[in-house]
Amino acid sequence: MPVDFTDSAGDAEYRARLRDFLRRHDHELEHSDSEYLSEPGVERIEELRRTQALLYDGGYVGVTWPREYGGQGEGAIRQAIVTEELARASIPGLVNHLGIGMCGPTIMAHGSEDQKQRYLRRLLRADDMWCQLFSEPGSGSDLAASRTKAVRQDDGTWRVDGQKVWTTFAQYAAYGILLARTDTDVPKHRGLTMFVIDMSTPGVTVRPLRQMNGASEFNEVFFDGVVISDAERLGEVGEGWRVALTTLMNERVAIGGAGNELGMRTDSLVARARERLPHFSTGEQVRLREQLGRVLVENLAIRYTGYRRLTALARGQTPGPEASAGKLSAVRAAIDGAELGVRLSGPDAAFARAADGDWRWHTTQASMPGLAIAGGTDEVLRNIIGERVLGLAPEPTPGKAAR
Ligand SMILES: Cc1cc2nc3c(=O)[nH]c(=O)nc-3n(C[C@H](O)[C@H](O)[C@H](O)COP(=O)(O)OP(=O)(O)OC[C@H]3O[C@@H](n4cnc5c(N)ncnc54)[C@H](O)[C@@H]3O)c2cc1C
Asked: Acyl-CoA dehydrogenase/oxidase C-terminal domain: which residues (predicted)?
């Protein structure tokens, strides 16, 4: 059946209202600029939180989430319209993206009603920032090997000891979802439990790590005798692996599947090409144009495939293994786009603040290898596609890769 991409009358009106909202609040909203990629910093995070709160108050965050948890109860098309219009107005991605993309959907699927009421609305408004405490020094792809321990105390609370690593935005987060080992006597996938942790609890230490793009977005997090109430358990004891899978599938959709462009916008790539192409030889120009065409086509394909996934999500379906394919191709397109931006920019791309101000290509390029690792490495995603989409024989390894 052919797909009609023209807005219905209702959608056109929705889009017009949103554009009007963005115009009226333009001076209060943060716009994309290079600062964010290079080093968010506390002040910048605060500004981005205010932008998210303003958008939330206008009804443009949590578009497809249920109304009882602070969402708008709208369909996937409306979410796609919001995503498009925010990009068009150069509004950066929502700062609490880990909360919205991963922690929130996990709480919605596995949390108690009390947890949903306490956390979800505030998360959508960025009143509370969230982080995802899964990876450890000894377990990334093999997440089920997590060793951070949670031991039940006589009074029913849990005592947590251990270490997580690569925890994005832990330094800004009020809460995190924490995967911990609660039973060492059963096979590894069955001895895990998920918790919500208040990051200000005594015994939690967060240490930022420097990345090669210059930013310190992710962290080491240490837990030393941290006490968590049993009311903060997310799902049943021993069910942590199932809960984590919900997070991971949503993470793959959030990174690669919602039709958004990663790290760079194709219109700025086209503008860069228009400006820089005349400086290249005729032969080079042909090659660069071909490369640009490929990147644009890849991005279009990803965007429209993303809309299909959004539709499934809005119908309440849980993202399946196909989310892995979405993430793989979106990251590949972003890597190609960033490389082209750097090639077009030449030496300008190498300086943090080049004279013409166009310095984000090298930062973007330096961020891309991280995207190919976060939320499941390329190799692990290919395993998932091979085994669960194509039905090939599973890898002959004793520990099952899951990230
Ligand atoms: C930018 C960024 C942000 C991140 N944010 C977070 C976060 O907020 N929270 C969090 O918990 N984690 C986060 N991570 C961590 C991320 O989830 C892990 O880095 C990832 O799961 C890979 O784990 P690892 O680094 O331990 O690598 P390993 O699992 O040790 O993998 C090393 C290499 O072996 C390959 N490999 C491993 N297993 C297999 C297999 N079965 N078959 C084939 N090849 C395999 C991998 O592809 C990789 O090339 C982030 C990472 C990055 C880069």
From this structure: 238-390
Provide the token pair at 289: 């144009």
CA distance 94 to 101: 10
CATH of 130-239, one of 3.40.50.720, 2.40.110.10, 3.30.70.1130, 1.10.40.30: 2.40.110.10
190 burial level (CB within 10 Å; 0-12, 13-18, 19+): middle
Whether the CB of 169 sits within 6 Å of ligand 1: no
The three-state DSSP-derived secondary structure of 38-53 is: HCCHHHHHHHHHHHHH
Give the residue among 168, 31, 179 at the shortest CA–CA distance from 99.
168
pLDDT tens-place string over residues 146-183: 999 999 999 999 999 999 999 999 999 999 999 999 99
- Is position 217 annotated as part of the catalytic site? no
DSSP H or E stretch at residue 165: strand 158-165
Residues of the chain with CATH 1.20.140: 257-372
Exposure letters 231-254 (e unless 16+ CB within 10 A, then b): ebbbbebebbbbbbebbbbbbbbb
The span from the CA of 103 to the CA of 125, in Å, is 14
Which of 166, 324, 384, when mutated, tests ligand 1's pocket best, judged by the most ligand atoms within 8 Å of its CB?
A: 166
Low-confidence ranges of the chain (pLDDT < 50): 1, 34-38, 258-259, 352-359, 401-403
What pLDDT digit, counting tens, does each position of 352-379 carry? 332 233 446 777 788 888 889 988 899 9
- Match 């065409």 to its residue by tokens: 293
